[in-house]
């Protein structure tokens, strides 16, 4: 009997290993440190960088630059915590964000704390990228051919989705590294175009940095909303452990060393993208800047078209990086809980359905960007700003009132304030614009 059980467990282990070798996150552990650099850069720098000058125009110079800098420091710190905690349990790798949650809060509670928030961020970002990709393609077309027949955004979203249907079939993170590299380079380039074109255009006549609010209430709500916009510009934490899982690890060279090297390079890239765009864009256009700085620039037409094309390439890569952990969750559930055999057909059908659903929501719900600002407040802030700190306090147990303990509590309090304030501003924006929304527009 005991021999049978032993044999069973060997068989189970073999089965388990076969499944792990098939699942996207644990399939390939051969990534180099620079893979982590461009995956993280692609995940972190969204097309939202182009709206940073607009956020600054609602916050003003002092609060705006402070929020931008504090967010950069806090999220780099919480990212470092996650990289450190990946292998804190001997002989075990916490390959997914929810596995880290389970280690801290228990099997069931850990899942319920992390997975819903992670899904809101990842699926929400995929849908926003569908819309961004479609709109940017439309802008390329309209800029280069102003007299052509107008094509509805819905069709452009379908065209953008068709590329993702194909790339979504790449089995794991390492197989999309070329796409991710292209996306990371493009994000740097279109950020550079945004600020160099601003300098070339010159300071707007009668530039003003006064509040752009119509009244006090408008000012307060837009201040909250802009805080959210800046905070959500740093939302790469939802894929960081999944990226680290692809890096090899040994007692001599644990995965955290190459991973951290990649993260630092990515964060330098983030600073190079964010700070010049935000500060130069606001300095040159003041409170007249649009919510997408490329709209404010308009000329030269070829350069703006090129920048929008780069945005398209970037959001293709961004979509794949954020979709991979979702594919992993879906495939894990189907193979482990529903007992489907791992196969190409299972992967092909599930991923195609996912891309189709994100495309449909993007087409049907035109105000999804504002909606993500609302939902994102409840998910971006915790997953990037304070859940890593809570887990660190729970697992590492630093001494009360020590420096580490105080830093973590400061991050938790700031993150909580962000989680409460930013959705208020976003909800008001949804209500104000609701009268102009048309579904399927």
From TrEMBL:
Question: Which residue windows are coiled coil?
Answer: none
According to its UniProt entry, one GO biological process term is: auxin-activated signaling pathway
Q: Which family does it belong to?
A: Belongs to the amino acid/polyamine transporter 2 family. Amino acid/auxin permease (AAAP) (TC 2.A.18.2) subfamily.
- Give its localization: Cell membrane
Q: Which protein, by its recorded name, is this? A: Amino acid transporter transmembrane domain-containing protein
One GO location term (cellular component):
plasma membrane
Question: Which molecular function terms from Gene Ontology are attached?
Answer: amino acid transmembrane transporter activity; symporter activity
Naturally occurring in which organism (per UniProt): Crotalaria pallida (Smooth rattlebox)
């Amino acid at each position: 009997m005991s021999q049978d059980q032993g044999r069973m467990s060997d068989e189970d282990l073999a089965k388990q290993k076969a499944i792990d070798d098939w699942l996207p996150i644990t399939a390939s552990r051969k990534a180099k440190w620079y893979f982590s650099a461009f995956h993280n850069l692609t995940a972190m720098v969204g097309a939202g960088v182009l709206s940073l000058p607009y956020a600054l125009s609602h916050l003003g110079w002092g609060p705006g630059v402070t929020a931008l800098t504090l967010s950069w420091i806090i999220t780099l710190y919480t990212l470092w915590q996650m990289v450190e905690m990946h292998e804190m349990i001997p002989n075990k790798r916490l390959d997914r964000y929810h596995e880290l949650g389970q280690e801290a809060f228990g099997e069931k509670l850990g899942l319920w704390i992390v997975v819903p928030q992670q899904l809101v961020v990842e699926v929400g970002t995929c849908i926003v990228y569908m819309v961004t990709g479609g709109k940017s393609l439309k802008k390329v077309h309209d800029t280069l051919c102003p007299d052509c027949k107008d094509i509805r955004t819905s069709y452009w979203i379908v065209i953008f989705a068709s590329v993702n249907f194909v790339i979504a079939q790449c089995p794991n993170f390492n197989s999309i590294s070329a796409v991710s590299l292209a996306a990371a380079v493009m994000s740097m380039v279109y950020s550079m175009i945004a600020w160099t074109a601003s300098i070339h255009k010159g300071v707007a006549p009668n530039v003003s940095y006064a509040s752009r609010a119509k009244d006090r209430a408008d000012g307060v709500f837009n201040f909250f909303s802009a805080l959210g916009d800046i905070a959500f510009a740093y939302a790469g934490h939802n894929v960081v452990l999944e990226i680290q899982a692809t890096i090899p690890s040994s007692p001599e060279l644990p995965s955290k060393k190459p991973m951290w090297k990649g993260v630092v390079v990515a964060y330098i890239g983030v600073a190079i993208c964010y700070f010049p765009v935000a500060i130069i864009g606001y300095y040159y256009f003041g409170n007249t800047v649009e919510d997408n700085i490329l709209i404010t620039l308009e000329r030269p037409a070829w350069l703006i078209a090129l920048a929008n094309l780069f945005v398209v390439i970037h959001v293709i890569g961004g979509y794949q990086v954020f979709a991979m952990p979702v594919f992993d969750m879906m495939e894990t559930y189907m193979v482990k809980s529903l007992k489907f055999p791992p196969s190409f057909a299972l992967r092909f059908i599930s991923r195609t359905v996912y891309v189709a659903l994100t495309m449909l929501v993007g087409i049907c719900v035109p105000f999804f960007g504002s909606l993500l600002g609302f939902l994102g407040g409840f998910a971006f802030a915790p997953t990037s700003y304070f859940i890593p700190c809570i887990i660190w306090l729970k697992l590492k147990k630093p001494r009360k009132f020590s420096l580490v303990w105080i830093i973590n509590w400061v991050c938790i309090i700031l993150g909580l304030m962000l989680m409460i304030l930013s959705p208020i501003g976003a909800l008001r924006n949804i209500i104000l614009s609701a009268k102009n929304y048309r579904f399927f527009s």
